[in-house]
Amino acid sequence: MTTIHLIHGEPAAAALRQALLASEAPRGGETAPAACTAGHVIALADDLTVGPLRDIDEAGDPGAAQRAAFWQRLGGVSEMLVQDDCVALAALEAADSHVVIWHTPDAADQLALRRVCYRLRTAPQRLNEVRLAAEDLAGPPDAAATRLLAHLPDAAPISVLRITRLALEWQEAKFANGEMRRWRNNTFTSGTWADLDTLIIEALAAAALDGTHAMPGATGAPWLACDTLGAALVRRGAGFTVGEPLVLWRLRELAAAGELRLRDDMYAACESPAEAGAGVATQNSHAARASLPHAAAHLSLSR
Where does the record place the DUF1835 domain (predicted)? Predict the structure, then answer.
């Protein structure tokens, strides 16, 4: 019987495909067809930690349109990823293949795990999992593939009791329908964009004070890459991996609200393949939010 492997994110899926190819190569000196093996790995691309979730699993996936509109609003992300995931999960429900869900402790992985358990809760005998550490997917693709290859024997059935619990937790997350979902102490809680905005301003203020991210030749405030700012948000308790599209969107929203001042070329850089810089300086916060310190920082936008 065919086994379908699910994993969150295309980079992780590519590494898993490479690992599966390596595992199937020694078969009487023949190599397994690459297209066949690649077709057994599905990348779940939708980052479920942010955006609306309600009705996402209902008949016809009416919530998919809401999520697609959310990603379109952010920019830099294909809104088709929502529908692609819905179609893939619907196909799994209709099939009878064994399913292995690979997951790390990352919030997006944990939500994907819960969604899959919910969608396949009536066929628990099909569900298996491989638990990974975050480090298993780090580094160059070849290194990640080697680590995933070593984990292939770790695939184990998920108990009916655990599937039921994870499916219930997914339903709770959908019902809460928060703006974002944080994974702390093995529990999901809902958060707001205001929570994330506060962390962004605090991170920029701290960077301006310590200057640890200053780049060679930079003058004045330090330069921060988007992934550096995202990592700082995780360290400050964001509760999920904050991707570049979300960081840029919140910076634009903060600037529009008058809480940040962005250098004009940020908007051009968002549409340009060339690397560019964006300056950020906090303004006085609105009365609705506690007073935040003035800070200055810069962002270098990755390709």
Answer: 4-131
